[in-house]
Amino acid sequence: MSAKTTSNIVVLLFMFLTASSSYIHEGNHEGNGKHYKPCKRLVLFFHNILYNGKNAANATSAIVGAPQWGNLTILTSEFHFGDLVVFDDPITLDNNLHSSPVGRARGQYIYDAKNSSSSWLGFSFVLNSTDYHGSINFIGANPHLVNFRYISVVGGTEDFFMHRGIATIMTDATEDQVYFRLRVDIKFYECW
Amino acid sequence: MSAKTTSNIVVLLFMFLTASSSYIHEGNHEGNGKHYKPCKRLVLFFHNILYNGKNAANATSAIVGAPQWGNLTILTSEFHFGDLVVFDDPITLDNNLHSSPVGRARGQYIYDAKNSSSSWLGFSFVLNSTDYHGSINFIGANPHLVNFRYISVVGGTEDFFMHRGIATIMTDATEDQVYFRLRVDIKFYECW
Amino acid sequence: MSAKTTSNIVVLLFMFLTASSSYIHEGNHEGNGKHYKPCKRLVLFFHNILYNGKNAANATSAIVGAPQWGNLTILTSEFHFGDLVVFDDPITLDNNLHSSPVGRARGQYIYDAKNSSSSWLGFSFVLNSTDYHGSINFIGANPHLVNFRYISVVGGTEDFFMHRGIATIMTDATEDQVYFRLRVDIKFYECW
Hints:
Three copies of one chain form a homotrimer. With 192 residues, chain A is mainly β. Chain A has two domains: 1-36; 37-190, AOC barrel-like. The first copy, chain A, is 0% helix and 46% strand. The first copy, chain A, has strands at 12-13, 40-49, 61-65, 84-92, 103-111, 118-128, 133-143, 149-156, 164-175, 179-190. Chain A has an eight-stranded antiparallel beta barrel with strand order 2-4-5-6-7-8-9-10. In chain A, β7 and β8 (149-156) form a beta hairpin. Chains in contact: A-B, A-C, B-C. The A-B interface holds A 25-26, 29, 31-32, 34, 36, 64-70, 81-84, 110-116, 118, 120, 122, 139-141, 143, 150-154, 164-166, 189-190 and B 1, 51, 53, 56, 60, 62-65, 71-73, 84, 86-88, 104, 106-108, 122-124, 126, 134-135, 137, 139, 154-158, 161-162, 192. Chains A, B, C: One of its GO terms (cellular component) is apoplast. Chains A, B, C: It is found in: Secreted, Extracellular space, Apoplast.
């Protein structure tokens, strides 16, 4: 895990002075003395390869719970309602699965919608690079059909001590029901 | 999901100036410049119908994990210790299951007590009504035998951007081991 | 659960004026008007006995989800990737399993690493002693091979109303794959 990277600009970090992105709904808030523009920002990718009974060596995740009509090697039909997946996904700075990882995304996702494509996320980023060392903890709803989904950054440790924020998740690629790649744009509004 | 409602007072929202309710233990706090009276409040209901092997069409939740002595169509005996349930429950403004939903409650509950009736909750409200659009993220312990249980509101998005608070949960109805309805009184103390 | 304890100094509580512990990495932070030294601190132990098919009476936890190659009475080989455990563990003031509990630690842990020993934690402390009444909610990554691991305290209720902080977890003892004891050093930085 977490090979030290040597690239010069390792993690994309911006001290945003203006809210310029069209999807930073959060940037519009004004108010009572707290930060409404991110005090720190990271854009990272993570890569999920689901175990399907034949890819044990490469898989980074596995179904570990399923409803009575499901099983552990293939997602249930249509919206996969009830499938619970544990993952240990490499985090990279770009969209290349084979780039040197800067950490691991670990936790669970649960397909939690009967009539649409959606999941509930509970996971952590464990970062270990030349630029960052520490964990970031997330929970939230992830409605897959919305281009940009928002989840909560509920805490962090070490370099992210006590941080809070919002992460914007975008599905950057998907292949069959085995591989997907998420782009995660983490905006911290409490940095300590 | 989330039909636009047209009722005039859609979501109960109070800017509480006085802590009047007998069960607002939180309202008693005084202190260091933060809000000790809710800056926003929502009272909502959600409805859980557990899959029992025969009600696939109506069920809004399913057991997806169980201990070795359990199974996926019936809760384990007595306190159901170890049963893990995924849910996709309609949220309504009143206690009527058939009212037009204003969103979905999605996530998991886990029966987590060997010798009492209790669960651990990790879920989100995904609201989509004329009055609210956004998600609210919850975790916490839910000891069923206590009338009013407190869980943490650990974050929110869009209309609930970065919010934190406490939700008071009450079991409003229960029928056999298939249906229950919870009343959730969400008090935000950080509103941004 | 939660016998009233009668010992005179029941819960170790320190208002730290100086950051003296060698592992209080968090104590080094300086900044913008928030607390960087704990406003409250608790040191507690909890005790996990995993169900193995033969210890139903004593077990405090059970595997309820496992990958396709696993089962519910024994952890999967090596790093146990994918095993999901529900627990209802006694919390004590010292490292003695048989001390009078001051509450329960309830929730889930998930072995979430393919090539190392690590878990993801989502749980609550439900405290009920002469000194404390209320719950504390945790999530975070728990890499077992690191001596001191940090997870997030994302909220609390009653005596811990709206609290946030960092918990430092240490494995205090482990026996086979059935028993382990964790020492949890909870430092609150937001106390309300």
